[in-house]
């Protein structure tokens, strides 16, 4: 499967989307022009936002390399919540300072792990 088929979403340390590839357009339904510059709340289901932001801030304050692959719920443009196999990564510079986060979602398949039901 080519990287272009995967959804790639990048956000800064403030949780504002800075990159939104064609795979994200296809999977989530938002055009890049609608997503870039918006908060990650665009794709985080409302009932998970508090937990998301708690974890996001912790990751930005204390970046670590961890394997965080799971079937993650995503709020899509049509208002539906769908689960996609995704991997969450904290992006850090050479000194270990967080510079943002990236999520990579596969268009099909499952990790077999659903931490949010």
TrEMBL record:
InterPro entries associated with the record: PAS, PAS-like_dom_sf, PAS_4
Top-level taxon of the source organism: Bacteria
Domain PAS residue range list: 1-63
Coiled-coil stretches: none
PROSITE patterns: PAS
Protein name: PAS domain S-box-containing protein
Organism: Haloactinopolyspora alba
């Amino acid at each position: 499967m080519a990287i272009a088929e995967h959804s790639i979403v990048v956000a800064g340390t403030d949780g504002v989307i800075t990159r939104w590839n064609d795979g994200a357009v296809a999977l989530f339904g938002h055009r890049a022009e609608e997503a870039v510059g918006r908060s990650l709340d665009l794709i985080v289901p409302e009932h998970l936002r508090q937990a998301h932001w708690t974890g996001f801030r912790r990751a930005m304050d204390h970046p670590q390399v961890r394997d965080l692959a799971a079937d993650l719920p995503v709020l899509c443009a049509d208002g539906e919540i769908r689960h996609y196999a995704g991997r969450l990564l904290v992006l850090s510079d050479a000194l270990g300072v967080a510079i943002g986060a990236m999520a990579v979602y596969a268009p099909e398949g499952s990790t077999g792990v659903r931490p949010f039901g």
